[in-house]
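Workshop exercise sheet. Pairs work together: one partner reads the sequence aloud, the other fills in the structure field after running the prediction. Swap roles for the next sheet.
Pair: D.N. / O.F.
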Amino acid sequence: MVNASLVSMTGFAARRGHAPGHDWGWEIRSVNGKGLDLRLKLPDWIDGLEPAVRAAVARVAQRGNVTLGLRVVRNEGGEALRINAAGLDGVLAALAAVLARAEAAGLPLAEPTAAEILSLRGVADPGGEAEDTGPLLAALLADLDALLVDFAAMRAAEGRALSGVIARQIDRIEALAADASNAAEARRPEAARALGEALARVMAGAAEADPARVAQELALLAVKADVTEEIDRLSAHV
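Structure field:
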């Protein structure tokens, strides 16, 4: 019987979650692989996320090419952009200097929009200057546990299906091997008579032939025609 705990290396799972200030979506998929090849696509601004995710995935998947992605966005309930006044003053002064020098050189430039200025590094900080990502990390890892439960369940379900397929194939091989063994056993008397008749024909047509040598050659043919060893080996594999 095939091991009932057989687990497939193919699997997929996805989840969406949210916490105050953030929404996110997980997706994990895997295909066959000799070992565990884990590829992560994670936000790099959440402290401690990558090592924690690697450890969690390794607990449920020992083999397969596994790809896991996470997308995190700030929702409307999050903190508004906070203007870094000193940074904004510095950027505005630099822009004024650039515009003045360009105009003096006869290269007038279009004035930047407020949105373009906000996008510059150091002007605005989403969620504050020193956002604590600890609570978000805890929420993400709790949701990751549920994602991995779904992922492992799919791999286990496919493993059970594969186990049934393999078991049926092995049962069929076992039945065919038994049929072959019975057929070979039933043929033994007929094969012995055929060899005896062949020996008699050879001796009748060549009186000078050595009976012992002819019998030896016929015995070799009989050994080659015997499938007992192959059937025994097949039964051992089953």
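Discussion prompt: The CA atoms of residues 52 and 141 lie 8 Å apart. What would you look at next?
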